[in-house]
Design brief:
By secondary structure, this protein is α+β, with helices and mostly antiparallel strands. It is 28% helix and 22% strand. The protein has a 5-stranded antiparallel β-sheet with strand order 1-2-3-5-4. A hairpin with a 2-residue loop joins strand 2 and strand 3. Helix 2 runs antiparallel to helix 3. The radius of gyration is 19 Å and the shape is globular. The protein starts with 20 loop residues before the first strand and ends in a 9-residue tail after the last helix.
């Protein structure tokens, strides 16, 4: 006679309905480690919520926005991720009121700097500067990527 199946230890988590929207935030100090930490945070959220097709463009755009904060301001940043059934919106708030500058280096140019916002413009479906402020932060630069259109059918993540 085969052994009886193992019973789960402890109480089971109650079933929760699928969420239709997620909102995550991360505060980031003015430190050289911030771009990697923010990139990893975005990657983890998207992979955990089964949005793998959005990982590459979202992490690259996030990295560029956080790197701009690190290079061009002296303060900290706040990263906010809003994920719905159809859209991903990532906003990077910083303490500088100065808007980002988009430069398009000449084709074949060997410049190592100045391509970050041009990459965001190229990869994102849309981007802009937030009209609202978040606490001590003076502005928020955001980008959006398509959800279901660019990443296949969305399966809401079940918790529990």
């Amino acid at each position: 006679m085969p052994p009886a199946p193992a019973r789960p230890e402890g109480p089971r988590a109650p079933h929760r309905a699928a969420q239709l929207a997620y909102d995550y935030s991360l505060f980031s100090p003015a430190d050289a480690t911030s771009p990697k930490i923010c990139r990893d945070f975005v990657r983890t959220v998207l992979r955990t919520l089964d949005r793998e097709p959005l990982v590459m463009p979202a992490t690259l755009c996030t990295s560029e926005l956080i790197t701009n904060v690190h290079l061009h301001t002296k303060g900290s940043a706040m990263l906010r991720i809003l994920l719905t059934l159809t859209r991903l919106r990532v906003t990077v708030f910083d303490e500088s009121p100065d808007p980002p500058v988009v430069t398009h280096p000449a084709a074949g140019a060997a410049a190592c700097w100045g391509r970050g916002m041009a990459l965001v413009v190229e990869l994102a479906d849309t981007w802009g500067v937030a009209d609202d402020r978040a606490g001590r932060f003076a502005k928020g630069v955001w980008f959006e990527l398509g959800g279901a259109e660019g990443g296949g059918p969305f399966r809401p993540h079940r918790i529990g």
